[in-house]
Here is the input.
Amino acid sequence: MYALEVKNLSHWYGENRILNNINLQIDYGQVVALVGPSGCGKSTLLRAILGTDPPSEGEVIADGKLVTEPSRDVGIVYQHYSLYDFLSAEENVAFGLKLDKTSLISRFVALPTYLRKRREHLQMARDFLARVGLAAASGQYPKELSGGMRQRVAIAQAFILKPKIVLLDEPFGALDEATREDLQMMLLRFYQENLRAKQRGEQPQYTIIIVTHELNEALYVADRVIGLSRFHTEGSQGAMVVYDRPCPILKPDASKDLSRLVEQREELRSAVFDPSNIKHHSKYVSFWDELAQDAQAAEAKQNSIRLAGDKSV
Amino acid sequence: MIRRPIPRWLVVLLGILGVCTLLAVYGGLSYRQSAINPKQKVIPGLQAFRDGVSRMTEPQGTDESPKPSMLVTDLRATYWRLFLGMGLGVLLSVVVGIAMGSYRWIAAPLAPTISFLAKIPPTAMLPIYFVLVGSDQTMFTTMVALGIFFTMAQSVYQSITNDVRDEAIDKAYTLGASDPEIIYEVIWKQILPPILDNIRLQIGPAMIFLLAAEMLVGGEGIGYRIRMESRVLNMSIVYIYLGILGFTGLLGDWSLLWLRKKLCPWYDR
Here is the structure.
């Protein structure tokens, strides 16, 4: 079972077909960057995954369940308006715990139990805020926080509930370069937690889809890049997935230096953003094949090491 | 320079100066008028005010069946009508406004009707209230309630449309909220400050509708008393009633501002 499966998804606005036959499988623990030119349907795809704007055709399955409306399985962080003005930072983070773990009636009828749970939730929220470097700002309201601090709180708010997938809709788009880098590092720390969970044989907690228009960011924070675009042979029928490849971080033998990043960025730019590069939509879609090849190569390498070991014995 | 800040002490001093100027102008006019005609009652002096106050506060009725003074009777009648009418109007408009802002199938039929009815001045509807509801306590309550209902329901609906973004609602769903929780935990809490501001703004119009109705059909109340006393040129009593109206209006204003600060500390930050 995948964390997210998008099957034959198409979407029309009136006569205008925006998305054409999108098929995706995203595994637990993957951090996927979704890129594409303006107006190619990234937000439409995101809303379909979120469940607020169901697709005209096809289906979205999150953690084995068909998505028909927003639910706690799929979290979201928007570029703007991510926080509730009337709640302090810690209350914003604890808001999901309050909604998920207590009912509206119990908050009035079973007040002592609710208050005890509330204290626990606020403590959990403060702990999570400390993890994202905001321990000192837990009592402040969103109006009193800077843009970067607000996004940290929004990320904590979405992640504390441990949804199966978290969608980040251009979360760092309005931030300055330094803050942006800080928050990218924060995402990489979540990625590290995923790796540690995998090493322990557990299911990784954080499956993330980040929509961004910054290609460097896409290649830096994600382990897989998906490009949506109309620049393919069936472009008049709407955008399709024209790029789906692993980032260097995921390829065990790929060079992790800057030249590899630059190389892949140029490939991505050409495949997704260059209107003159009209190709078959599957030309750069090779994520699962590359993963399988890498697994085979790793297995062959291990076998040869074992054989060499046996011979020496 | 425009909007250059001034020190706090200067704000207080200028405020006191404004009130003193008003009193001085009144005193001057009263003195001048009394010099021309010592029996004048249009701009009464201090003595006339003293007489007015003692008449207003004098207990009514007989020793066997004492009744409260004119002032107490009038204030009690008017403010009780205002309280009932506004309470009912605010309650109805908040419920209807939130329902309209939350569900499009409720807003679709109600929004055009409410917009149309909000444009009709409630004082122009007085004859309809007289015919339909009569001229007793129910009429005053209904008129104040309906007088503010249409405007306020429209404001609450617009506050939700403008202040509660779709993203906030979608996000609450992703955090596990149910529909009632979104209405109470997101919509209600976000629009509470505009609702309190709206109540403040509606006190004035509600008072206008009520006083107009009392002037026409009341047997007691501030509107009734102002009309009766002004007909016999007892302006000292009229001015005192106007002063009471001003003070209670300010008191209501301050109370709601205080309430907003207590209930919505995030709003003014």
Notes: Chain A has a mean pLDDT of 88. The interface with chain B takes residues 50-52, 69-72, 74-76, 78, 80-82, 84-88, 95-96, 98-100, 104, 141, 143-144, 157-158, 161, 163 of chain A (CB under 8 Å).
